[in-house]
Structures are given as structure tokens and as C-alpha cells.
Amino acid sequence: MPTSASPCVDRTLVAPPVDSDQASTLSSSHGYGSDADSLELDAALRRRQRRKKQLVRIGSLVSATLAALCAGSIVVFSLYAPKFQSRLHYTQFQVNGVAIAGSLSLYLPISVMGYVCDRVGVAPLALLSSVLFGTGYGLAATLYRKLDIEYNNLGKPHGPGNGWSYLLMMFAFVCVGSATCAMYIASVSTCAKNFGKGKYRGLALAMPITGFGLSGMWLSQFGTRFLYETNPDGSRGDVDVFRFFVFLAILLFVVGIFGTFTLRVVDEQNLIEEAIEELENSGLLDGSALLGRSDRGYGTAGLTTPAGDHESHRLLDPVKDGDARWKKNWVLNAETRQFLTDHTMWPFALAFLFMVGPGEAFINNLGTIIGTLTPSTSGLGEGTSAATHVSVFGVTSTIARLLIGTMTDLLAPAPETQHVQVFPNRSHHPSSPLKRFAISRVVFLLFFGILMSIGLIFLASGAVQDHADRFWVVSGLVGAGYGAIFSLTPLIVTIIWGVENFATNFGIIAMLPALGSTFWGLVYSAVYQAGVKESGSAKAGGDSDDDNFCYGKQCYSATFWAEGICVWVACLLLLWVWKGKGGWQQRGIVI
């Protein structure tokens, strides 16, 4: 009777195809059939596989960080927003209309894209972002060039007949916002799933999030230093918007294509199997459904597979792939239901909305805010520039994201599981050796939320009016708060509700700030335009070039007082979710 030889030995050491009797004879005669040799070869194979997987993880981390480092181009909108006023003769409402179109398309599709990301993969989203970025910035460059020549070189008035061009500009930024959403969720989801078990999962998740924050800084500096207009006297002027848009179209198209081939999630099926075991132990899922599924042929629900066909069915890739897809969707859908029915999720999402909305409105209108601080015929503040403060915002946002990733890994409690924490009052044992000095991630979130509110209130108080050199305090504090909030929120989602369904869960929360961005953008525009009318009525025979610009505290103060109070409300919501009745602490959730 033939003896079973190691598969590794047969594949590796026996070149021609042989049957089992020949394999047994060869293995015995050459001394390769011993259990020790077989175990050693298996161990070597497993080590090679682990190294290969680790290399794929690291490569995906690098690719995700590079993609995110370019993806945040929409953050620099305030760099060229004043040009839309001065060169294209847009009103503040029209400028905010374009900004809001980009913000809505950045947030609203994120739940759908997250759903696709979890169930289909990250590569399709990277490819989609490439196409949308190329289309959006290419169209915006064409429109800007055409309108700039018509209005400023040919003297063509801006009339109702050109309304179609404004709609196309809004469409272009819808494409840009959607592309940003796709590239961001693909990058962050890749790192969340690949490093969900790791000791430094906070830092791994912070890498692409930090890259996204840095993108605004380096893109604004690159645009103003290398893609600038030349003044009549030969000096360097403001950013050349047309060339900047062309540069972004090419860069982001290439980055998206690169991400399509390099962003990979390792051992995703193992992640699903572990999630099944965890959820079955919790009593949320009935394992009999999966057992029944495994005994059926793919696409033959209700029919029992004959016993003699089991072996052949296991060898059919379509059947195995079909069962794996069914099992994956089954688990992810169950986790989505668990997420949506968690009573703490909705106030947490609302707090995120109340914090991020003011931050989004601030960065979108940063350029025109600076213009209100000092009287200037160009509409820009003296002694400072939008590019400088986009960079300040980016630097403080980046520092906050990196600090959050590192400090929470070291100081915050870490649950042993990477899946859903669904067990009320269960005793979790944090893996951090600093348990006696653990600081909850909610404390970090509250701290940075208060920092953001201080920056907004400082601006609203008028302390910066006629002192544009103090504006760095505002952009720095708001940037730090904004960056920390965007770093901590996805991290909290992975820790409480697991990593396997991360893109869907975070997508549901992350689409809400579109409402905040839109609301506060409209509020700012209304206050700004009221200030324009007030300034216009105070002028006698003013220059028509200044008709769209506002100067003075009345242009922004009411808006930012309201935004600061809004952030305080968000902090109260977070405290209630964490410490209130039925909150995370009472349920024994490690956060």
C-alpha cells in the first residue's frame, strides 16, 4: 500500500510528474520521507510565506501613504478661491457653491464607496479615483483658461449667457471631491485591515491619514513656488491656477493608476473567518447557517450535494470562491446591522459632524477670511497669504495626526480583539503594559476638539482684525483639531466595531460632515455678503473691482462664534457617549 508523502517534497524535489507509489519509493530511497524533513520544509515554506505577506503589507502601507500624500488636493481650494473672485468675477456665494460641490461629493459617496471597498476590494476605487481626478482637474483647467481670457483679455462681460460654465465648474469639483473620497477610503482601509492585529495599528492607520493632511501643505507650497504667474515687473506673483490644475490632473491620474496595482489587503479571508468565530461566540450569529451553506453547491440553495461529489466540489475554484464571497457578505452585512443598531454610534457620528463641519468651512474659506483682516484692493491680507496658512494648517494637522497615532498606541488601552466589541460588561484585558496609566482615546478627542474651538473663538473675537500676523494662531489651532479628529474617528471605529467592515462603517459616519460643511459654508457666505453690502453702502463711488470683497470683523465674527459653540456641543455629546448611561465605559468597551 502506498504511503503518503509530503506535498512539499513532491512538488519541490521531484521534477517530473509521478504517481504516489513512485513518490513514496523516491522519498524513501533518498531519505526525504521522514517526518522531521517534512516538518522542516513546511516550516521553511511558512516562513517564506510570512515574509512575502509582510513585504506586501509594507509595500501597501507605502503606496497608501504616497496616494494619500497627493489625494488631499481639494484642501488647497482656498489657495485659488480669491482668483475665482478677481479673475472669473464670481461672487462669494458662487465661490462657496464650487467649494460646497467639492465637499458634498467628498463626503456623500463615502458610504457607497466604503461598501464597495469592503466587498469588492481597494483596486477598483484607486482606478476610479484616477479617472475622476483627470476628468475633474482637466475640465477645471479648461474652463478657467477660457473664462480668464474672455473676461480679462477680451473684455467680455460676465453675463447670464455664461451660466453653463459655472455649472461645469461645479461638475468638475464634484469629480475632484468624488476622486478624493475614493482614494482616501482605499488608502485608509488598506492600512486598517493589514495592520488591525499589530501593536502599532494606530500609527499604521495614522500614516495615510497624516499623508492626507500633509498633501495640502506641500501642494500649496509647490504651486506658489513653481507654478506662479509673473508680474509685469518680473517678480513672482500668485499661483497660476491653469497650470496648477493641469499639474494636479496629471499627478493624481498617475498616482491612482499606481495604487490600482499596489494597494493590497493580505489574508482578508482569515479576517472574515476570525470575525465569524467571534460573532458566533457572542451569540449574534447562528453558525448553523454557515454549516448548511458549506454543504451546498454554489448556486444550488436547498439541494444537498451527494457525498461522492464533496471532494470534486472542494477542488472547484468557482465553488470555493463563491462560498467565500457569500460568507464574506453574510458576515459584513451582519456587522453593518450591528453597527447601525448600536445606540452609541449615532451620537458619536453627530459629534463628528459638529466638529468637522466648522473645520471644513474654515479651510474652504481661509483665503477670503484673510482678505477681511486688512484693507486691500486685491482682497488679500497684507503681510500674510493663503498659501502660508494652508501650510500652517497642514503642518499642525500633520503633527496632530502623527502624535495621535503614536501616543494612543503607547498610552491608550488596547483590546485583545480586532473585531467588534459587542460584549456588555465583559472584562477585556488591555494589551498595553501601561494599563495603570492608560488614557482613553476619547480624552484625546475631547482635548483636540477644545483646541479647535479656541482657535475659532479667537478669530470670532476680533483679536486678529487688523493684525493678520496673528492669524497663524487660528490656522494652527483649527488645523491641529481638524487633523486629530480625522485621525481619531476612524481609529475609534476600528477599535469598537472592528476592521473587516471598516470602510462601510466609517463611510456611514464620514458622509455626515457634508451637511456641516454645506451649512457652515452657506452661513459664512451669507454673513460675508451682508458685510459686502454694509461696506458698499458706507462707500461713496467705490471701485467696482471691490464689489465682491468685504473688509472688517462684521464679515465673519457671527459665523465663527456659532462654530465655536457648535464644537462645544460636540464635546458634550462625546462625554455622554463615553460616560453616560449605556455608554462605552458602562458596557466594558476598551477605548
UniProtKB/TrEMBL annotation:
Entry keyword annotation includes Transmembrane helix: yes
Keyword rRNA processing recorded: no
Residues annotated as transmembrane: 55-81, 93-110, 122-144, 164-188, 200-221, 241-263, 442-465, 471-499, 506-527, 558-578
UniProt-listed InterPro entries: MFS, MFS_trans_sf
Principal location class: membrane
UniProt keyword annotations, A-Z: Membrane, Transmembrane, Transmembrane helix, Transport, Vacuole
GO molecular function: transmembrane transporter activity
Tree of life domain: Eukaryota
Annotated localization: Vacuole membrane
Pfam families named among the record's database cross-references: MFS_1 (PF07690)
GO CC annotation terms, alphabetical: fungal-type vacuole membrane
Recorded topology in the membrane: Multi-pass membrane protein
CDD domains, A to Z: MFS_Mch1p_like
Family to which this protein belongs: Belongs to the major facilitator superfamily.
Protein name: Probable transporter MCH1
